[in-house]
Amino acid sequence: MLLENNLTQAKNGDKIDALGYAVAHKNDTFKPFSFKRHAMGENDILVEILYAGICHSDIHSARSEWKEGIYPMVPGHEIAGRVVAVGNKVSRFKIGDYAGVGCMVNSCGACEACKISHEQFCENGKVVFTYDCLDCFHENTPTYGGYSNNIVVHEHFAVNVPQNAPLDKVAPLLCAGITTYSPLKFSKVKKGDKVAVAGFGGLGVMALKYALYLGAEVSIFARNDIKKNEALRLGAKALYANTKTCKERFDFIISTIPTAYNVNNYIALLRYGGEMAIVGLPPVEDKIQIDLTKLVFTAGKKVYGSLIGGMQETQEMLNISVQNKIYPETEIIGINDINIAYQNLTSGKAKFRYVIDMSSLKA
Has residue 363 got a pLDDT over 80? Predict the structure, then answer.
């Protein structure tokens, strides 16, 4: 019934009814929430969401740990689903296709960054993130994410997903996948390189898998050795519970850590000329700092931040992942279990990536 109503609204050019789970403030728990998506434009597609991953960024945002959030908030930027309606100028999708939606849903399209498909760095400041963002292209209305039954998005900001792909495993690729694939590609990680992955959650697993795909030798740093057997099973050379016990030096380190840590300890483990990419972002109150004196006196090392990836690179990542069966380690949950999932993720009890089965969302 919900879908039939959505299709009628899409046909009539009306706003689209949506149902999801939201928090009303930073200390709230998730509860059912009804809202409206903007009306479909001629370049838009309407996606029935089938699966949505839970990213640690969702937790930071829901709890206003990076900035004051926009409430009520429906998080979720790891979205996989089925196209159920298309605008009259859509060329990349047809009804029945599978589509993925990641961390952003629009940008100016005209600046140099957008023209080279680095839309996440839109130079006009018009990148629209999938949730917790004011949509400058739709009357500055708040965006709502993937913990919901549908999403309306410009076709440019959706990726094509093959019909034979497992959608529950594709969903986390739209953030965890591209966030780790992009810096590995940027730093030109290659066969024989020694790579370290700091943090072994949803992003860390994907960093390990992509680095192995590129032919690197990979070690893992985790807060404890509980996941050691999993890391070794997935192909890691070693797992270290801290930096002090590690005597190796690395060509490349990727930090996916979302909580407070000493970044300088990892920089010290880079070889001369080595590079460190930071993709995990702890709460702002943790005030992570790089020791500039040590950085200068151990010159030749490079440290940079990396934010998801552009749409062209995201499609490339997904194609490689599906072709080579590079998927996250996931646990499927019902939408009523979001609060438990958040507790597990913040207490270290979560194994890897939680993915919400949206068939559990009932009107």
Answer: no
- Measured CA to CA, the distance from residue 52 to residue 147 in angstroms comes to 6
**Do 202 and 230 contact (CB within 8 A), yes or no?**
no
Q: Distances from the Cα of 231 to the Cαs of 216, 226, 318, 349, 355, in angstroms?
A: 15, 10, 23, 16, 20
Distance CA 203, CA 308 (A): 11
Q: Are strands 159-161 and 79-86 parallel, antiparallel or unpaired?
A: unpaired
Tokens of 241: 């519970």
> Residue 10, Cβ neighbours under 10 Å: how many?
23
* Measured distance CA(276)–CA(243) in Å, rounded: 15
Distance in angstroms (rounded) separating the CA atoms of residues 128 and 137: 8
Radius of gyration of the chain (CA): 20
Dihedral (CA of 65, 70, 76, 78) sign: negative
Please state, in angstroms and rounded to a whole number, the distance separating the CA atoms of residues 243 and 250: 12
**Measured distance CA(205)–CA(64) in Å, rounded:** 26
Handedness of CA 323, 252, 355, 45 (dihedral sign): negative
pLDDT tens track for 184-220: 999 999 999 999 999 999 999 999 999 999 999 999 9
List, for residues 95-109, the tens digit of each pLDDT value. Answer: 999 999 999 999 999
Bin 311: left if φ > 0, else alpha if -120 < ψ < 50, else beta.
alpha
Q: Residues with Cβ < 8 Å from 134, sequence gap 6 or more?
A: 70, 140, 141, 142, 143
Tokens of 56: 């640690």
What is this structure's pTM?
A: 0.95
Fill in the DSSP letter of residue 23: B
Give dist(CA 15, CA 351) in Å, integer: 39
What are the counts of helices (DSSP H) followed by strands (DSSP E) for the chain?
11, 19
